[in-house]
Amino acid sequence: MSDAGGNGFTTRRFLAVSGLAGYGLARIPYRYANAVFYFIVATLLAGGRS
User: Fold this and answer.
1) Maximum CA extent, the chain
2) Sequence-separated (6 or more) residues with CB below 8 Å from residue 48
3) What is the dihedral of CA 41, 22, 17, 28, to 10 degrees?
4) Chain-centroid distance, C-alpha 17
5) What is the pLDDT of residue 50?
6) Which residues are CB-contacts of 37 (< 8 A; sequence separation ≥ 6)?
7) To the nearest 10°, the Cα dihedral for 19, 49, 41, 11?
8) Which one of 3, 22, 36, 47 is separated from 30 by 20 to 30 angstroms, measured CA to CA?
9) Planar angle of CA 33, 27, 30, nearest 5 degrees
10) What residue spans define the domains of the chain?
11) What is the reported pLDDT for 44?
12) Contact status, residue 27 vs residue 19, Cβ threshold 8 Å
């Protein structure tokens, strides 16, 4: 039962950090933005070990 609270906190922290990172990638212009975007998409498509 005590793990349920910890998992919720971890999920909220992950969503908060991901949201801030996504905002930075989407709204702040920088050099090689397209290359960074495609790298992130490629790593998501590659998957991982579980």
Assistant:
1) 47
2) none
3) 130
4) 7
5) 56
6) 25
7) -10
8) 47
9) 35
10) 2-46
11) 82
12) no
Q: What is the pLDDT of residue 49?
A: 66
Q: Which two tokens stand for residue 19?
A: 């949201």
Measured between alpha carbons, how far is 44 from 31 in angstroms, rounded to an integer? Answer: 22
- Whether residue 47 has pLDDT greater than 60: yes
Residue 49 in contact with residue 37, Cβ under 8 Å?
A: no
pLDDT digits 0-9 by tens, 2-46: 555 567 778 888 889 989 988 988 898 989 889 988 998 888 888
